[in-house]
Amino acid sequence: MVGNRKDGPPKHEMVHFAGLLRNERRFGDFRTVLHTGLYSQLVAMEVPVGGDIGDEVHTVDQILLFTSGKGLATVAGKDQEVQAGDVVVVPAGTQHQFVTRGDQPLELITVYSPAEHAARTVHKTKEEGDIEEDEGKDEAPTWSRKSKKENEDAGLVKLSGNYDNE
């Protein structure tokens, strides 16, 4: 699998997910982290028929790009029907819930900024994910929560773009 799924900052190279946003994906798992960067995280989700992601609030920003299926988004108490091709932005600290509607799973790609989950996270089901989160086993890597200044001081981000030691 392409993307940074290790417990360490990513290399300074392109990460390309061919066809990731095409319709009719079939991710299979409820949640799979695809890539964790210094300031963001890319995650694929498949919410089963009759399922939901859970009523939640994150301390990070979240952008959801719907690739297949239909659902109901509830953000800050406002309902909105969603379908493939739609995008929903959930600002940090905002209550949200997404529920599958219809006879197909609701599939989406979500971007968290900064990261929300462990870099190697794969949850087959929502219940599995809830247990790991409750037990503190699905926490974002500490390196993904550092400030811009901390990353610059550590040499992880250079305006020169020169990383000869990688």
TrEMBL record:
<dbReference type="Pfam" id="PF07883">
    <property type="entry name" value="Cupin_2"/>
</dbReference>
<dbReference type="InterPro" id="IPR011051">
    <property type="entry name" value="RmlC_Cupin_sf"/>
</dbReference>
<feature type="region of interest" description="Disordered">
    <location>
        <begin position="119"/>
        <end position="166"/>
    </location>
</feature>
<dbReference type="InterPro" id="IPR052538">
    <property type="entry name" value="Flavonoid_dioxygenase-like"/>
</dbReference>
<protein>
    <submittedName>
        <fullName>RmlC-like cupin</fullName>
    </submittedName>
</protein>
<dbReference type="InterPro" id="IPR013096">
    <property type="entry name" value="Cupin_2"/>
</dbReference>
<dbReference type="InterPro" id="IPR014710">
    <property type="entry name" value="RmlC-like_jellyroll"/>
</dbReference>
<feature type="domain" description="Cupin type-2">
    <location>
        <begin position="45"/>
        <end position="112"/>
    </location>
</feature>
